[in-house]
Amino acid sequence: MITVEWREEFNTGVPSVDFEHQELVGVLNQLLLAIQSGGSDAQTQEMISNLYGRFSGHFALEETIMKRYDYDEFELHKEDHEDLLDQIRDLMESHAGGDFSGKAELFAENMYDWFANHFQTKDSRLHRMIPEA
Questions:
Q1: Distance CA 11, CA 58 (A)
Q2: Which of 7, 35, 125, 129 is the most buried (most CB within 10 A)?
Q3: Does residue 8 belong to any structural domain of this protein?
């Protein structure tokens, strides 16, 4: 199974945001490694829930900032957030339903693609345009 390796091109240029993004990648990788090592079902489900909560919180903060500044690409950015949260919910449901075979690998690949695209385009633009972001 793959993990998401932090790459320099993921940086937005805002150190505090990049640090938080790196932490999110770390939480994701802990989950992927636990799945790979065959952790308990309860532990895996808890880790997926934690991942969902961490991303939800981060996205809520970004969306609050975007609203405050009447950010012109708010809807596009929020839609991208919702797509990722949907993927995490799907993974959680697959795991809870016992239909997990192969889903974690696909999820890991999708996450890497999502991070590369979202951090480099949407988050980078947001943080260039909004002073406190």
A1: 16
A2: 35
A3: no
The answer to whether the beta carbons of residues 115 and 81 sit under 8 Å apart is no
Residue pLDDT, tens place only, 21-49: 899 999 989 988 888 787 778 888 899 99
Cα–Cα dist 119/12, whole Å? 7
| Residue 100 main-chain phi, psi, to 5 deg | -110, -10
pLDDT tens for residues 117-128? 888 889 888 888
Domain count, the chain: 1
Look up the domain containing 22 and give its range.
16-129
Please check whether residue 21 lies inside any domain of the structure.
Answer: yes
**In sequence order, what E strands does the chain have?**
none
> Which pTM was predicted?
0.85
CATH assignment at residue 103: 1.20.120.50
Q: Is residue 63 part of a domain?
A: yes
